């Protein structure tokens, strides 16, 4: 029986765990695959770091040379980022290897080209670990729901921002303070931009929307708003309404079925919603489909071992396919639905205004909402010396209508400022 | 491009929905499979019932003749029960067809023989719908977690009993009253035995344990206790401890890893546990594995359309394999772990005793627990005229130690009876 050879690109948080489990669980992997798998090389950037458990002669800093080796059956890419990951994966396909990757940024930017390269090479490209870490999500969407029609995917797919929002909610801390704690505890990276500005979640939303709707969706198609503008006042206001603020990724099919949208932004959801209780760095994703109804998937969204679990699940699948001389399902983009911009998205809004504390202001504000066809659900008024705040929660309206309303509100003399606008979801 | 032909065996709750979706979503299924699929025949028991949406000439009462047709690529078995389902599936394999089934009873009784027949025919046997309805669970366990080591599967896998327990909890109703309501609302069948005695959940536990532990487990290996003995007093006692009673299926690897157990029984879990909030006919399953940590899967556990969603996901996979000339992963039972009986299972217990209201009874009872090595966590004593009740909650102990303790308690003069024994889980 032949041994399958695996090249590991990257040996950081995830790669170290992949290598460890491949070694410690070699017998189980062999039994499940039907042939032994062997780590044939490990590419890193810095040659001279200690890599416990990995034989020195496996380490190389020349990743390109490693993926060009013709004895490599599967390449695991856990370097991250666009380049050199992209070129390395394409080279791997050129040399007949299948690829397992955890790289959401790359898949969301250029997934179709990579899938095309895999298909023309007769190779597999699997990336379960790229979305929601350990949680089996892409395989269920792609395979278990292959006979169903998914209408909506809604979830918490970034642990760093969930940790920050959780802190703000439980301690009343402001955004900067909560971010500092997340950084100190290792939940946020030194440069937290990708997480807090929503880039990471947007990449995941693009991948989810693409698979759920059988349509090409890239990160550029995803509306994205991070949580840097979320204030302690927003969190408190959410609390007052028995809501909680979460950074959500939402992929939806339009009511008429002809288009889809994908967006990432902070949103208020009821505290009774199952996503409200997702704590710390956990992830959870709801999938709504026509026949299955509402499904939820929950688990660790990141971390070395959880992410390695997803990578190794893909490794087993890809190796089985290799031995069978087949490939798994590739990209499915036959539906070619239009990916619509944010304007047409329909949801509810929480709008917080600083207004002059005068008679008639509420009537003025209400008129502006009405003129733009945005119907008001509730208004809460809080008076202070000379000025006041108005918190308006709307019924469902399009993003375009809400934006026009807000522009008009800014032009009212009695509106001193729009303190915050937040979407209200999950009801 | 050739058309794949499907024989549908059974056209009841599930089969009707399978046929409907195959017709209404034919174009999507064809695009996802890569070839059209056609319903080539539908076997039922009663020929002369209206079958809306299904052409009369497709209906037959001769299922055997249908599965013997050599143009059938895939057989979907949604008849249920052991025979004739078993023989029909074996005949299907003999004639080269792959099989998709929703039949937990059959798979739990005889899964290995069916898998062996599929393997020797070079055909697929898929049955995602057999456990937890629409929830993608078997595919994630078998494939997504193929590189991980599952240590525990714990869940609510029977909607009927969950509905009954939910009613008892929310209204204070007794078991019979809650069952009556479940029957009236269509949540329980006319003969509810399979559900309320835990047979249905035990079949699912056997299937889950087999896949999770790569070991053959049949329904006969599963310890099974239904909920017919659960009283309103048990529910109230659970409430008093801020717990809730659920019928759980639990599959566990022993601490030393050499054996596994599978069991189904009512248990108290904390109200703060995520399974506590699983309402009505929903199902939810926790999976704990070494690398991934704790995952949860949640969704509709039954119903025509949800179950059909799972069946059709399998249909797409099996059809793709057919076209590729390959087969998916078959039975994986290489680990051959011992399936241990209940004696060695370690958990906590809630023991409710009717005792004489005399001085020294508590000391006597406590001595019996101590003599059997079962350590007591809390005791609650309630006095009534002349007699009293004692509710003892233990620390973790083996089932054998608890059973021996209870036998000894029954022999105490001052113990008038053991009102109930319930396991305490999820802490
Ligand atoms: N961490 C998580 O929880 C998580 C979760 C889900 C998905 N992911 C994804 O998994 C991937 C890896 O993440 P990570 O957290 O493991 O990253 P990491 O800890 O930063 O590790 C990156 C690894 O890549 C190596 N590397 C960098 N540039 C290289 C080059 N040009 N050639 C060869 N090797 C190079 C680094 O080498 P040195 O060791 O020499 O620095 C390091 O071993 C990313 O795509 C990430 O988005 C991570
Ligand atoms: N219902 C659920 O929510 C659910 C959920 C998960 C799994 N399942 C599983 O799915 C399977 C089907 O369940 P179901 O609820 O759809 O059952 P059902 O409503 O009782 O339907 C059974 C079907 O099988 C047909 N049938 C019975 N004996 C037959 C025979 N000898 N030859 C040919 N056809 C025969 C019946 O014909 P007639 O129509 O003429 O009576 C009927 O169409 C079972 O294995 C069940 O455990 C069901």
From TrEMBL, chains A, B:
Top-level taxon in the UniProt lineage: Bacteria
Pathway info: Amino-acid biosynthesis; L-methionine biosynthesis via de novo pathway; L-homoserine from L-aspartate: step 3/3; Amino-acid biosynthesis; L-threonine biosynthesis; L-threonine from L-aspartate: step 3/5
This protein's UniProt keywords: Amino-acid biosynthesis, Methionine biosynthesis, NADP, Oxidoreductase, Sodium, Threonine biosynthesis
Protein's UniProt keywords contain RNA-binding: no
Catalytic activity of the protein: L-homoserine + NADP(+) = L-aspartate 4-semialdehyde + NADPH + H(+); L-homoserine + NAD(+) = L-aspartate 4-semialdehyde + NADH + H(+)
Enzyme class, broadest EC rank: oxidoreductase
Molecular function per GO: homoserine dehydrogenase activity
EC numbers: 1.1.1.3
CDD domains in alphabetical order: ACT_HSDH-Hom
Cofactor names: a metal cation
Span of domain ACT: 350-423
InterPro entries membership: ACT-like_dom_sf, ACT_dom, Asp/hSer_DH_NAD-bd, HDH, HDH_cat, HDH_CS, NAD(P)-bd_dom_sf
Family: Belongs to the homoserine dehydrogenase family.
Function: Catalyzes the conversion of L-aspartate-beta-semialdehyde (L-Asa) to L-homoserine (L-Hse), the third step in the biosynthesis of threonine and methionine from aspartate.
Xref: PANTHER family: HOMOSERINE DEHYDROGENASE
Protein name: Homoserine dehydrogenase
Organism from which the protein derives: Streptacidiphilus alkalitolerans
């Amino acid at each position: 029986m032949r041994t399958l050879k695996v090249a590991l690109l990257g040996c950081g948080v995830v790669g170290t765990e992949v290598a460890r489990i491949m070694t410690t669980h070699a017998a189980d992997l062999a039994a499940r695959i039907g042939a032994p798998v062997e780590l044939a090389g490990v590419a890193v950037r810095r040659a001279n770091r200690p890599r416990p458990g990995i034989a020195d002669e496996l380490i190389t800093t020349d990743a390109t040379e490693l993926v060009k080796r013709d004895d490599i059956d599967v390449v695991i890419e856990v370097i991250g980022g666009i380049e050199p990951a992209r070129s390395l994966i394409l080279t791997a396909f050129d040399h007949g290897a299948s690829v397992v990757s955890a790289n959401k940024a790359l898949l969301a930017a250029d997934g179709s080209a990579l899938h095309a390269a895999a298909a023309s090479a007769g190779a597999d490209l699997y990336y379960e670990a790229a979305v929601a870490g350990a949680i089996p999500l892409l395989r269920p969407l792609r395979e278990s729901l292959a006979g169903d029609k998914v209408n909506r995917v809604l979830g918490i797919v970034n642990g760093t921002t969930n940790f920050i929002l959780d802190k703000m909610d439980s301690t009343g801390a402001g955004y900067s303070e909560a971010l500092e704690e997340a950084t100190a505890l290792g939940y946020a990276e030194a440069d937290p931009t990708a997480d807090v500005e929503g880039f990471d979640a947007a990449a995941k939303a693009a991948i989810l929307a693409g698979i759920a709707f059988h349509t090409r969706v890239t990160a550029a198609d995803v509306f994205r708003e991070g949580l840097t503008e979320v204030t302690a006042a927003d969190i408190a206001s959410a609390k007052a309404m028995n809501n909680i603020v979460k950074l959500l990724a939402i992929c939806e099919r339009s009511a008429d079925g002809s288009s889809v949208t994908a967006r990432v932004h902070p949103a208020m959801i009821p505290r009774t919603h199952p996503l409200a209780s997702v704590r710390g760095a956990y992830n959870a994703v709801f999938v709504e489909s026509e026949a299955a109804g509402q499904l939820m998937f929950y688990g660790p969204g990141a971390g070395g071992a959880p992410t390695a679990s997803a990578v190794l699940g893909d490794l087993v699948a890809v190796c089985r396919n290799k031995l069978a001389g087949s490939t798994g399902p590739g990209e499915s983009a036959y539906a070619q639905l239009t990916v619509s911009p944010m304007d047409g998205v329909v949801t509810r809004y929480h709008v917080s205004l600083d207004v002059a504390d005068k008679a008639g202001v509420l009537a003025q504000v209400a008129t502006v909402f009405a003129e733009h066809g945005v119907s008001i659900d509730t208004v809460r008024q809080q008076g202070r010396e000379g000025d006041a705040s108005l918190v308006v929660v709307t019924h469902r309206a399009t993003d375009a209508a809400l934006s026009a309303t807000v522009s008009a509100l800014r032009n009212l003399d009695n509106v001193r400022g729009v303190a915050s606008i937040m979407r209200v979801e999950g009801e």
